[in-house]
Amino acid sequence: MRYRALKALATVVSAVALFLVSALPAWAADSITLTWVRHGESYGNIAGAGIDTKVPGPNLTALGEQQAIDIAQQLKNGGYDSIYTSNMIRTQQTAAPLEALLPNLPVYEKAGIHEISAGIFEGSPIDSGLGRIGYFLIPVAWTLGLRSLPIPGGESGNGFEARVNGVIDDVIANGDTKPVLFSHGATIMAWTMMNVDNPDILLMLTHPLGNTAVVVVTGNPNDGWMLRSWDGVAVSQNPSLGGQLFVNLRNLVVAPQTAVYNVVQAVKSRDVTKIVAAIRDGVVSVAKAGVDFVRDSVTDIARAIRGVLPGGAAAKPAATVANSIAAVAATSETSTGATDLTSGSKAKAGAKLRAGSSQAASDHNGSGQTAGKADGEAKKGAASNRRASASKAAA
Fold this sequence. Notes:
Elements: H1 2-22, E1 32-38, H2 62-75, E2 82-85, H3 89-101, E3 107-109, H4 130-143, H5 157-173, E4 179-183, H6 185-195, H7 202-206, E5 214-220, E6 224-230, E7 233-234, H8 241-269, H9 272-308, H10 321-336, H11 357-364, H12 383-394
Helix pairs in contact: 1-10, 2-3, 3-12, 4-6, 5-11, 8-9, 8-11
């Protein structure tokens, strides 16, 4: 009786695992490298200026133009395969010198990587006052998993995540594996710390990104992202146990927020197919987040214990529990002659799905937010043509 119960449990676990895995879309498993570059100094960055997040935004200062030339020289031999900018003038002007040095690279303008909307804080002094603090603290809360929290009069963390992930979806669809993305300080800092598996939130506080600062992130939406360097500072690829458990908890609390957001966006579209898909994907992602949280947390703790025990002895990782149960059940079948219901139904333990995976997957299925996609999908022409059009937009 005991063995039959174990076999039944193994069958249920295997079936649930296969159902969860099959419900997720197939992403390219190859790792890509995202090189984020903050724009050069603009007239919105000089002393006494106000927070300016509206499109098209201010031009670069003379110093900013020189910074753009300098960063182009620094990046020109990096082996990049494409250039992306936001729809704001300051990122386009910063990218122009690199475009001139690498004229064969495709250039894309994407609204999805524009600056975080300041909402009611728009126009507040950048160097003093409560507006600056409010505009900064809410994105910090997003990095802690509170993505439903909106900037008053602006956007929520869910909306921000959806639009940036939409651009990354486009990068992958274009076949680019080493793009340079010219974006904005708050956008780069927030998206990075919301999504990487080795976040260091204190970097946002102690080392905020200056003009033309570079952040390098590697990975993919399915397996997760790792922060490699932050404005020239190498970041550890082996997060502490506390850091791992934080990411596990962050992923757990983000899943239902993302699911609700995607359902709301689907309802707004009034497309029944999208609504049904959003509800289905939401249920799957929330259920999977709970399973992943337990599995990842137990595995991380077991690894930490194994690392400090003499001889490397440790408890069995949680990721092997299902296989162990199935093995016991298989042994039972040999001794009792019962039918082996687990044959062909075992799910292998895969890579951890970290922050951003559920939302990126939902967006890929068409149930997520699509409003953040840029209008400028086509490859742009020479840098001079784009600068001319950008200046016209500013006027």
